[in-house]
Specification:
alpha+beta; 3-stranded antiparallel sheet; flat
Length: about 70
């Protein structure tokens, strides 16, 4: 995986600027589509942001399966 990361500011009129850490992940061979990630916790390392993103996927699947099989509402 190739990784590019930096910090930036998220601006919205009449609101304070929110610092963001952005990341772009891609495979050198181009086998997978590039993935862009954003975090408002600029203290997190790039590795931790990727780990949190990966964990999010498993939680999302679990919640979808629970809704489907047990009728739980969002």
């Amino acid at each position: 995986m190739e990784l590019a990361t930096a910090t930036a500011g998220w601006y919205h009129s009449a609101m304070p600027v929110v610092p963001l850490r952005w990341m772009l992940l891609r495979t050198p061979e181009g086998k997978l589509a590039p993935v862009a990630l954003l975090s408002t916790d600029v203290a997190l390392t790039a590795e931790m942001i990727v780990i949190y993103f990966a964990r999010r996927g498993s939680v999302k699947v679990t919640l979808e399966e629970t809704r489907e099989h047990q009728g739980v509402e969002p």
